[in-house]
């Protein structure tokens, strides 16, 4: 009878856990200096990976400040086309692959779907976004900055993108954070991740969205 009771309690616990057990994460903050220009970046260790907790702001060819305004580089980092992004990270760091991004998202959300196109996680984006809104004077995201907690310490900011029109067109500042991966989708495009002001999802994109390697997006480096 005692064994039956124990088994029954275990089954009940598993059932309740499936419906709402909290997944505990343990971000470990740090910092690094880019020896190339002396800039200091905050970092965060999440699981077995260590990431920059700020967007890269190292000037290379084919990289831009949003709106060609240097002040935006200080706040949001630079925007890089894919070819520039591949080699922009400092020694000891690299542009993360699609698989490395999925590893991060799986750590934050064990229910994430790394092979999904579009919605990879319904909740990890909120865990990665900085909090507050422009309208309330408390942050960098457009209202409502849905579900943002930044409990991961990843501190994603909405740096927007640069569209490769003649002369370049900057869009989506405050609304979206776009991040390149090092993984090609086809000859003209590569995989990327998007966080949005309107929800807490992480979405996964490729050339089917119309975004080519010539677009300029934000870069987060991961430690080798």
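-> sequence recovered:
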């Amino acid at each position: 009878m005692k064994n039956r009771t124990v088994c029954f309690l275990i089954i009940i616990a598993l059932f309740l856990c499936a419906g709402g057990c909290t997944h505990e994460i343990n971000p470990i903050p740090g910092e690094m200096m880019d020896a190339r220009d002396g800039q200091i970046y905050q970092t965060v260790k999440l699981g077995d990976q260590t990431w920059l907790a700020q967007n890269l702001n190292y000037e290379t060819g084919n990289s831009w400040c949003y709106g060609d305004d240097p002040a935006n580089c200080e706040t949001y980092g630079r925007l890089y086309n894919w070819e520039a992004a591949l080699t922009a990270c400092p020694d000891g760091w690299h542009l993360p692959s699609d698989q490395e991004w999925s590893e991060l998202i799986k750590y934050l959300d064990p229910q994430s779907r790394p092979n999904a196109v579009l919605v990879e996680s319904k909740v990890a984006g909120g865990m990665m976004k900085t909090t507050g809104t422009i309208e309330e004077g408390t942050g960098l995201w457009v209202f409502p900055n849905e579900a943002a907690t930044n409990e991961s310490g990843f501190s994603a900011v909405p740096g927007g993108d640069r569209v490769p029109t003649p002369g370049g067109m900057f869009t989506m500042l405050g609304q979206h954070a776009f991040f390149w991966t090092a993984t090609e989708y086809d000859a003209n495009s590569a995989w990327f991740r998007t966080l949005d002001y309107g929800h807490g999802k992480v979405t996964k994109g490729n050339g089917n969205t119309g975004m080519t390697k010539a677009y300029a997006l934000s870069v987060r480096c991961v430690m080798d």
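The radius of gyration is 19 Å.
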